[in-house]
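Suppose a colleague, Dr. K., hands you the sequence of a protein chain of 227 amino acids and asks what its three-dimensional shape might be. Before reaching for any lab equipment, you can write down a predicted structure in token form. Begin with the sequence itself:
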Amino acid sequence: MGAETLAERYARLAGEDVRHRRVDVALRTLDIAISGFFLALFVPLAVVIALAIRLGSGSPVLYRGPRVGRYGEVFEMMKFRTLTADAETRLGPYWGAELDRRTGSEVTGLGRWLRASQLDEVPQLWNVLRGNMSIVGPRPIRPAFFEELCREIPQYWQRLVVRPGLTGFAQTRMGREPSWAEKLAHDLEYVADRSVWLYLHVVGATIMRVARQSGAAVWGLLTHRTA
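The predicted structure, expressed as tokens, is then:
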């Protein structure tokens, strides 16, 4: 049996540090209710998006990528594909600012709008319904990135105590620019203080943010076409 990796060690610590709370049952109930409702609501739109991706840039329609979940369990996260074919192969070695820079040239025209409106993340509602994710929690991260961040930030494993989220406390307070350590501070604040009120507060703030971004994305698309 091989030596325990850093990621495996931190996943074990997260499992050992479990503090079951009564509120977690309530939050899981909310996850099921909200994800089920919005999945049903978005079915017609999801079909249209899937057809547009298929006709515009071929298959696959969905991106499926490994992410580190609760207690270190790796699951397959789904999104509508927004990048060109085989982009993952080309982008695989990079992360952080360099990954962001290189990703820009790989985004399709439709993918750019899906990202701006955050409609690319609709399939993650299925991850929530299945129990891989929560509506609210730290954003899921790739296994390789998790390993690197554990080396840089020893407390990083503590985010594994809860399911990763479709949205998170950090995302309602800041953009992509702050450091991983700053984002982690907000994630751990949510882990420590999680409650039905805080969950609903993050959901409400996210809906407002997505509505603004979607409106801006639609306006940008219309003005671009009429320019």
